[in-house]
């Protein structure tokens, strides 16, 4: 079997999987920028919103950072994979970018 992966035939956001007589390109984990294999522990670099922790790229919980990311009144932070979003607190709704009581 010829190892086609030795020639790095895949794109930057993929890794090469050598198979018998062929190869396939597989997508890197969402937490990676470039990778050498499957999973968050095979990242070359961590994507934005992720940090290297115990040799893995793990999600940064922006909602638990010392500096508040959702600064408007009556707004809550919701952590998402690789990011976060700001939503109006319970009992409030978004009216032109301001959270007003419902």
Automatic annotation (TrEMBL):
<dbReference type="GO" id="GO:0005509">
    <property type="term" value="F:calcium ion binding"/>
</dbReference>
<feature type="domain" description="EGF-like">
    <location>
        <begin position="59"/>
        <end position="98"/>
    </location>
</feature>
<dbReference type="InterPro" id="IPR000742">
    <property type="entry name" value="EGF"/>
</dbReference>
<protein>
    <submittedName>
        <fullName>CRE2A protein</fullName>
    </submittedName>
</protein>
<keyword id="KW-0245">EGF-like domain</keyword>
<dbReference type="InterPro" id="IPR018097">
    <property type="entry name" value="EGF_Ca-bd_CS"/>
</dbReference>
<comment type="similarity">
    <text>Belongs to the CRELD family.</text>
</comment>
<dbReference type="Pfam" id="PF07645">
    <property type="entry name" value="EGF_CA"/>
</dbReference>
<dbReference type="InterPro" id="IPR049883">
    <property type="entry name" value="NOTCH1_EGF-like"/>
</dbReference>
<keyword id="KW-0732">Signal</keyword>
<dbReference type="InterPro" id="IPR001881">
    <property type="entry name" value="EGF-like_Ca-bd_dom"/>
</dbReference>
<keyword id="KW-0677">Repeat</keyword>
<dbReference type="InterPro" id="IPR006212">
    <property type="entry name" value="Furin_repeat"/>
</dbReference>
<keyword id="KW-1015">Disulfide bond</keyword>
<dbReference type="InterPro" id="IPR000152">
    <property type="entry name" value="EGF-type_Asp/Asn_hydroxyl_site"/>
</dbReference>
<dbReference type="InterPro" id="IPR050751">
    <property type="entry name" value="ECM_structural_protein"/>
</dbReference>
